[in-house]
Amino acid sequence: MYEGGAMTRRRQYGEVANLLQGVVNVLEHFNKYMGIPQIRQLSERVKAAQNELGQQILADFEEAFPSQGTKRPGGPSNVLRDACLVANVLDPRIKQEIIKKFIKQHLSEYLVLFQENQDVAWLDKIDRRYAWIKRQLVDYEEKYGRMFPQEWCMTERIAVEFCHVTRTELAKIMRTRAKEIEVKLLLFAIQRTTNFEGLLAKRFSGCTLADGTVKKPEVALPSTNPFLEDEAGTETDEIVIEKSDTDKPKKPKVPDNPFHGIVSKCFEPHLYVYIESQDKNLGELIDRFVADFKAQGPPKPNVDEGGAVLPSCADLFVYYKKCMVQCSQLSTGEPMIALTTIFQKYLREYAWKILSGNLPKTTSSSGGLTITSLLKEKEGSEVAKFTLEELCLICSILSTAEYCLATTQQLEEKLKEKVDASLVERINLTGEMDTFSMYIFLQEVCAMQWQNVEHVGDQSPYVTSVILHIKQNVPIIRDNLASTRKYFTQFCIKFANSFIPKFINHLFKCKPISMVGAEQLLLDTHSLKMVLLDLPSIGSQVVRKAPASYTKIVVKGMTRAEMILKVVMAPHEPPVVFVDNYIKLLADCSTDTFQKILDMKGLKRSEQSSMLDLFRQRLPAPPSGAENAGSLSLSAPTPEQESSRIRKLEKLIKKRL
């Protein structure tokens, strides 16, 4: 130890490093014997010598590279090079302190040259910052590259600290001069910064970064959809993986830039400037779409090709893709959520101004066409007339809505890929997808004003009118949707899902109702049921069997309507039989539904009260209600009378059809 102390005083750090490493290795073997006084004393002497050696080395570096004062830093030194080897053996804090002091001194000039009050500090001259550090790194490699051990990664550490300082300084000056930031200037600064971060990734591994995290690369799926195109040629350098070819060998994934955001993160609080700019641009784009449609007019009729998709919707989603990619390069955090909100806003505007706003107007209304116009009963059973051009336009808008629906879904998926994992749940375009799938067209079917149909128990002209409209218009719609057959099937399904519940609700509104009225409604219900079952192929020369999913919906829904009317037709005396018959036919345990049936029969409130109490008592008790199953199979009153009524209705239906 005495010899080691002498070498320390003479600064023979090379020899000290070898000797000290050997001593430390030996002491490690005696850790379990520290209870022996001699070994413990020896260990304490070694630690004291290490502390003394560390302080001396720090003083040597301070002398060579002063942190304060006007003295210029010294050049490379073999003594300091060997001192770094000793620091590797000492307390890690010594090495950290050396690195910290050296980098701070190396970047001191930068803080003076680019302080906030200097002209070169502003965003328009941001290139000069990155040019400065490039020169400094070259200068460091030439002068000090061999002084520090290679595993210290000093060049990278200098670059990383420069990035941290730059981010802090830029954030400070942008807060002060926020009103001077324009979108072009902001994008210029971000582009230059991200380019610099890309250069860092090519030069360094990122091993000195605190988190060391590397994001997973994003993937794109091949498709004609703008959000599923191969983006390998873009700045994102994504790897294309075909979902359908999972067994094919795939290209190796390229890790993201570990330096991404190390400086450019400071721009994120100011990206509202970019978002506001996109808001303005999209508003102008929608206005241009409206003007172009008015100037160019609707697409020409072409039944053979089916409804053509409006070109404006493709333009809209291509612009969306451009914005999404650009914004994701700027930030994958809150600005992406803000951009998503802007996307949602203009998807709704496109639906309203371009699609719904350009539907043909009816001759009797100044408002735009709705699907209600195809089904609504006119005075005197007059049928709304639409030209072939107008019907083709309707189908073109339907096809456009289908494209928008599918592409909006892909837009949502892409946004979720681009945004931070913690924000994925906040990306939700379900409302906009519902807009395209229901609001523009099918929601009008849901809003049919059946309550305006009066005297439903009479000759029911509304049934004739509905059937007439369906036969006249559905074949044209089907022919114009020939290229998108799946959408026509979806239309039929959603029409049935919307029409049938509305029809049943209006049955409940027919109160009180007589026996004859109930029979007439049962006849009307069966007629509508037959037409609905035939709706997918109505008026077609080629008769195709309706999809099973559609048939199931119609049969289930309209059969329920028939059962409701049969219960209404049944006598309510004795009450227990009536209640059991209701449970048997409808299998509905809801007191609300039962209450509506009683209202249709015109029972007084006092009668209804006792009937409701009896209904609650007769309900089968789950899950042990199997023993009472017999009560569910009680026969209806006077089955001969009911059978006679049904046979009579069947004859009337056959005659009518």
TrEMBL record:
Stretches for region Disordered: 622-645
Residues covered by the Vps53 C-terminal domain: 519-603
Pfam families: VPS53_C (PF16854), Vps53_N (PF04100)
Residue ranges with Polar residues bias: 630-641
Cellular component GO terms, alphabetical: cytosol; endosome membrane; GARP complex; recycling endosome
GO BP term, pick one: protein transport
Intracellular or extracellular location(s): Endosome membrane; Golgi apparatus, trans-Golgi network membrane; Recycling endosome
Family: Belongs to the VPS53 family.
Name this protein carries in UniProt: Vacuolar protein sorting-associated protein 53 homolog
Species for this entry: Athene cunicularia
